[in-house]
Each structure stands twice: as structure tokens, then as C-alpha cells.
Amino acid sequence: MTRFDIHFSRVLAALLFLWTLAGPCLALDSDSLSRQAGELMAQGDLPGAVELLRQIPVPAKGADAGAFVASRMQMARIYVSLNEADKALSAGREVLALFPDNSEAKNLVAAIRKQQQPHWLSVLDDCRRFLPALVKGTTMTLLLVLCTMLISPLGGLLIALGRISTFRPLSALCWFVIWFFRGTPLLLQLFFIYYGLPAFGMTLPPLTAAVIGLGLNYSAYLGEIIRGAIQSIDHGQMEAAKAIGMTYGQAMRRVIIPQTYKRLMPPIGNEFIALIKDTALVSTIAMVELMRSADQLFNTYFNITALALAAVIYLLLTSIFTFIFEKIEYRAGIYEHR
Q: How many CB atoms are closer than 10 A to CB 195?
């Protein structure tokens, strides 16, 4: 062996020795591994990126664990994209083993577990999460319905009596009220009351504006329904009442109006059932009722279950009101059922 060969062998051995010493250090360089893994991910080599990320070691006690946590969370995301849920859970649990309160790892593990559970169980969890907000919105819907049901029959009766009055100015005024509120959309009326009246110096809270708008609109509709029911009573009833000494007011209160009850129940019940659905329009004037609550939940979670639950609640409410009005209608015509 020549002197050159001996010298070359010694240099090669020294280089190998230095490489052996530097290799573990390079392997433990977390920043380099993370950077190389990112490059592989950019190239689409996800398995290769996972292998590099896996080499980032568990930090010693008291050492900086940022690179370790980031690597395991990145591994979990890659596994999720590869539909390997079990491996993603394992990566997330590695983080939770060191940091039980890590919110990112907890949310990731919870999301993966939710994806693995049966669909019906996921829907049940969504119902438990959304129902409290929807129940709160339903309470506001029922409040609006009940307030309108108290105001509109009285308003409708007054409009109907004014409409059939022989006093021309009063009859014309009631005709105009019916013409205006039946001829314009309820949404436009709510907009004018809540957004338009402040221009005239009158600012109303959302609930007050909603009750006034719904009350006026349904009073106009009920006014025509009540007028039709009153005028459907035979004119001889009024003449007979006057013949025995009753005034016009007494005849209306004691003879005519009581006979209109059973004729009024079907159309009024139909109007009030429509009212339950029309309350959804008040969401446009900053009222948080059932529909607004469902819309907020859907926009937050992009979960169709919120809208489905709202539909079920609306169906339940309309079914209950339908049953109640059917019973009232039966009681109002009880003598015809004997």
C-alpha cells in the first residue's frame, strides 16, 4: 500500500468518525426535521413527511415542547386527510399525555371520535347542543304569538264594527286600514315601524315594534273575517232583537256576535296558525326568536341539524294550536253534534 493510500484511508476514517458523531445531532435537530417535512408536504409526499415528523423526540422535562406538539398535531392532520383516524387519535393522545389541557389536541381528538361514532349518535349530540338556544328562541316566538292573539281579535272586532257602521267617516277609515294592511307585505310594515318611525322621532324597542306590526296586520285580516261572519247572520235576527226593545249595541252583543263564534273558529284558527310561521319575519328587526336562533346556529356551525330542529319545533307548535282550535270549534258548535 502506498503512502497516498494510507493517508487517504486515514482521512476517510476521520470523516466517517465525524459523520457518526454528527449524525445523531442532525437527527435530533427538530427545526431541520420540521422544515424538511414541510418541503415533503409541499411536494405531496405525506408519508415521507410523517416519517420525518415522527423523528422529533419527546422533550425532556422542562425543555421547550413546541416542536414536539406541532409535529404531533401536524401528523394527526395528515392522518385525518389520509382517512387513518386511529393513527390520528394516537398522535393527538401523545400531546395530551404531556399536556392534558392542550385545547387544540382536545378538540381534534373530540372531532375524530365524533366522526367515528354512529350517525344517529352524532345527530343526538347536535340536538343536545342546539336545543337550549332553540328553546330560548321558541319562548320569544310564543310570546309574540300570545301577544298578537290578545290584541288582534279585539282590534279585528273594532275594525269589523266600524266597517259595517252607518257612520260614513268611521266606515271609510276602517276600510282604509283593511286595504292598507292587507295590501302591503308584513315585512314592509315591520321595517317601517322599526326603521322608519325613528325618522319621525319615534324609536321603539324590537319587541314593541314586532307586537305592533303583527297586531295591526292580523287585526286587519280578522276584521274582514269578523265582518263576514256578522253579515252572514240573517238580518231578521237584528230586527227581532230591536222588536223586543234592544238597542243596536245590545242586539250585537247579546244576539248577533254570539252566533258568529262557530263560524269564526275555522278561519281565525287558520290565521293564528299562520301567525306562528309569520313570527319568523321579526328576525329582520333584531328580534331573536326561533328562526333567528336556528339561522345563527347554522351560520356558526354549518350544521343542518339546527334548521331541522327548528322545523320540528314549528310543526309541533302548529300541531298543538291546530288541536286546540279544533277542540274550541267543536265546543262552539256542540249543540249541532247532539
A: 13
Q: What are phi and psi of 232, to 5 degrees?
A: -80, -15
How does residue 261 score in pLDDT terms, banded at 50, 70 and 90? confident
Q: How many helical (H) and strand (E) elements, i.e. helices and strands, does the chain have?
A: 15, 0
DSSP H or E run through 139: helix 119-163
Question: Per-residue pLDDT for 230 more than 90?
Answer: no
Closest CA to 53 of 28, 31, 33, 29: 33
Crossing angle for the helix pair 85-98 and 66-81, nearest 10 degrees? 160
Which is more confident, 6 or 48? 48
| Residue 300 identity | T
Coil, helix or strand at residue 78: helix
R_g (Cα) of the chain, nearest Å: 38
For the chain, domains (ranges, CATH) are: 3-116 (1.25.40.10), 121-337 (1.10.3720.10)
Q: Is the alpha carbon torsion for 95, 99, 105, 107 positive or negative?
A: positive
- pLDDT greater than 60 at residue 22: no
Q: Which of 253, 164, 179 is nearest to 216 (CA)?
A: 179
Classify the phi-psi angles of 45: left when phi > 0, otherwise alpha if psi is within -120 to 50, otherwise beta.
beta
Residue 275: partners with Cβ closer than 8 Å, 6 or more residues away: 145, 148, 149, 214, 218
Q: Which three cell numbers stand for residue 151?
A: 290584541
- Which residue in the block uniquely carries the three cell numbers 378538540? 107
Q: Is residue 160 within 8 Å of 223, Cβ to Cβ?
A: yes
Is residue 266 over pLDDT 70? yes
The more confidently predicted of residues 164 and 18 is 164
**pTM (two decimals):** 0.66
